[in-house]
Design goal:
With 656 residues, this protein is an alpha/beta fold. Helix content is 25%, strand content 26%. It has three domains: 235 residues, TIM Barrel (Alpha-Beta Barrel); 212 residues, Rossmann fold, CATH 3.40.50; 97 residues, Golgi alpha-mannosidase II (Immunoglobulin-like), CATH 2.60.40.
């Protein structure tokens, strides 16, 4: 059986050139152990083979680093196991630079015959191998050697995934199947088959030796809606370094989907100022506290990336900083295990509807931003998810409806569910008519771009006006009995050489040109791609009209809070312990340099008000882990609490 899943992990890189000497010369068991204790670490991913292709043990399949004089992997494993720390082992699967010179024909190729990642032969960087080449046999032999000879607690295989390739091996396989290697769809089919072959073969090889070993294949992202790929893993590690290219939107989106998969999961950030491969770059402890807190607030454990110095000693500054974050996680763990999320809203991820392995991009990011800022409780879903537990479903911007989904949505509506549609979502697959009754007829894309929206409801921060929408929107007509919540207005003309006015765009004609937001029964439709617009423009009115529509559909929420827009709230249910755990977080990322968001200051919030509508009768409320009892009142099923302080992260335990 698996050991208890650890929540305080280090992911230790060691990608080390053969041009560096004295590898591991400063490794000291006591120093290694001391740093892990300082960091409050209970799991560390150790390295067997790095991207350079060097092994850090005496290898029969592969070559030990030429400047390493002892079995570093064995020494590290013995050190961490001696103090009760878990130790999965890392193998660079997709890249192996040491093998490139003699096996250049095994490399993954683009259509122009270039390789990844360098664009020219003299550019520094790693090259990916194709899993349809004989490289796979070599990799499996390496993995078997590590699993058989070392007491590892899991295997982490890196730089893998569904990746198109037109090397000689892939071309031959496609031609043998009468497929055109120039066809992108044929390339994608081959890419998927190659990845499945790799993962299934390597999983089988590992389990033949150690049947219960944990296995994770890292592609840098968990593709939503692709169960076949995710089930190749025993657990999930969500690589999501906010400063390393993923941003602060990625993790909340990914984790709220992975929550529903029923698998143990870790959120992986890094100690680096930028991203992987950085020496001497440090993220401050406040930022790591926030990122670790965000993970446990969503039912995940934490994994913080580090990179070992070539001499083999763990950096004291790094583990002092990590320790400040993990000390708090350690105190909070008992309230973060065996939990399930509580949500009003289910979001159908746009990514889950894409036919190829691609990111949901701005659409999914826009949904997350609006829901987080609007303080909604939500989960991220795919078409196979159970819709029944959600009071409202969101189909964002571009989700067309096939026959299977149409029947599922109709059944959901029949049982009282409510739906928000935006943009072209809700249309049939031919983009002709609404597949569910939205109270409107679709008339095509609006000609005026930009156009304007005139809400018929009161806004909190704005008086009545015509608000520009940086999109043409869609033309619709409302059917009988449909409530029009906002009107669309056109501009005088679109901007071109012969027609332009002022610096940007022409003003509104001030004439209603058709409905912009309608509601019919349990379906509300916004004729603009509001989530795309919000991700790209960040316009408050776009967020506010979307929040209004969601509030109209919900009526009342499970949770209401006075947290500001940058705050994050989650509500988790620990059913076995008969308690709910409310998580309140607050930090404000700021831009540093050209493209890096960092968390610099943590500003405490005071007297945060909370209202909760729960099915159970609440017996007691307290701050945890502090243990401080909180006064609360309960009227007509509404529990009202004032949380005295939120300093980065505060948990509130509600017992019933």
């Amino acid at each position: 059986m698996h050991k208890q899943f650890p929540l305080r992990q280090i992911h230790l890189d060691f990608h080390t050139s053969e041009k560096i000497f004295g590898i591991g010369k400063n490794f000291d068991k006591k120093q290694f152990q001391k740093m892990l204790k300082t960091g409050h670490v209970n799991s560390i991913t150790l390295f067997a083979k790095c991207h350079h292709g060097w092994c850090y043990y005496p290898a029969r399949h592969g070559r030990m680093h030429p400047n390493l004089k002892f079995d570093l992997l064995k020494a590290q494993l013995e050190a961490v196991h001696e103090i009760g720390v878990n130790a999965p082992v890392y193998i660079s699967a997709g890249v192996d630079e040491q093998m490139v010179a003699g096996h250049h024909h095994w490399l993954r190729r683009y259509a122009d015959n270039t390789t990844t990642w360098p664009k020219t032969i003299l550019e520094p960087g790693y090259h990916e191998f194709c899993m349809n080449s004989p490289y796979l046999d070599y990799l499996i032999a390496q993995t078997e050697e590590v699993v058989r000879n070392y007491d590892c607690d899991g295997i982490f295989l890196d730089i893998v995934g569904v990746k198109t390739c037109v090397c000689q091996f892939c071309i031959k396989l496609m031609l043998d199947r009468k497929q055109d290697p120039r066809d992108p769809e044929a390339q994608m089919v081959m890419a998927r088959e190659a990845y499945l072959k790799y993962a299934r073969r390597i999983n089988k090889a590992i389990r033949m030796i150690k049947p219960h070993l944990r296995i994770f294949h890292n592609a840098g992202h968990i593709t939503r809606g692709d169960y076949e790929l995710v089930r190749l893993n025993t657990h999930i590690e969500m690589e999501s370094l906010p400063t390393g290219g993923w941003g602060y939107d990625h993790f909340p989106l990914s984790v709220r989907y992975c929550q529903g998969l029923g698998m143990d999961m870790l959120g992986m950030t890094g100690k680096f100022h930028t991203s992987w491969g950085e020496f001497g770059g440090y993220k401050n402890a406040r930022a790591l506290k926030y990122e670790a807190s965000l993970a446990i607030a969503n039912g995940a454990g934490c994994s913080i990336g580090d990179q070992l110095h070539p001499y083999g000693h763990l950096d004291e500054a790094t583990y002092s900083i990590i320790g400040q974050a993990y000390a708090e996680v350690e105190k909070k763990e008992q309230w973060c295990k065996n939990v399930s999320s509580v949500a009003d809203i289910g979001v159908l991820s746009y990514e889950a509807f894409l036919t190829q392995s691609r990111s949901g991009g701005v659409i999914d990011s826009g949904v997350i931003r609006i829901l987080l800022e609007g303080k909604f409780l939500f989960d991220v879903l795919d078409p196979e998810s159970d819709f029944k537990k959600y009071r409202v479903l969101i189909l964002p911007d571009a989700i067309t409806i096939n026959a299977k989904l149409k029947n599922k949505l109709k059944a959901y509506l029949k049982k009282g569910g409510k739906i928000l549609l935006t943009g072209t979502s809700g249309l049939d697959t031919k983009n002709i008519f609404f597949a569910v009754n939205a109270g409107a007829r679709y008339l095509g894309t609006g000609i005026s771009n930009p156009s304007y929206i005139a809400p018929r409801f009161k806004l909190r921060d704005f008086p009545p006006a015509q608000f520009v929408m940086y999109s043409g929107g869609n033309k619709i007509s409302a059917s009988a009995g449909t409530e029009v919540l906002a009107w669309r207005q056109d501009s005088f003309f679109n901007r071109d050489y012969f027609h332009f006015s002022s610096h940007q765009h022409a003003p509104s004609t001030l004439k209603n040109a058709g409905p912009a937001i309608v509601r019919k029964g349990n379906v509300c439709y916004i004729a603009y791609p509001v989530f795309t617009l919000y991700a790209e423009k960040g316009q408050q009115i776009v967020r506010d009209i979307t929040v209004h529509c969601l509030n109209t559909l919900l009526g009342t929420r499970i949770l209401e809070t006075s947290l500001p827009s940058q705050g994050i709230n989650t509500l988790m249910h620990q059913k076995a312990n008969k308690k709910y755990v409310l998580h309140l977080l607050y930090a404000s990322p700021v831009k540093r340099g050209q493209s890096i968001e960092v968390i610099d200051d943590i500003v405490p919030l005071y007297n945060v008000s909370v209202k909760l509508r729960l099915k159970e009768k609440i017996r007691s409320v307290r701050l945890v882990p502090q243990g401080q009892e909180l006064e609360f009142c309960e009227n007509n099923g509404v529990v009202e609490i004032t949380v005295p302080e939120v300093n980065c992260h505060q948990m509130v335990e509600l017992n019933y």
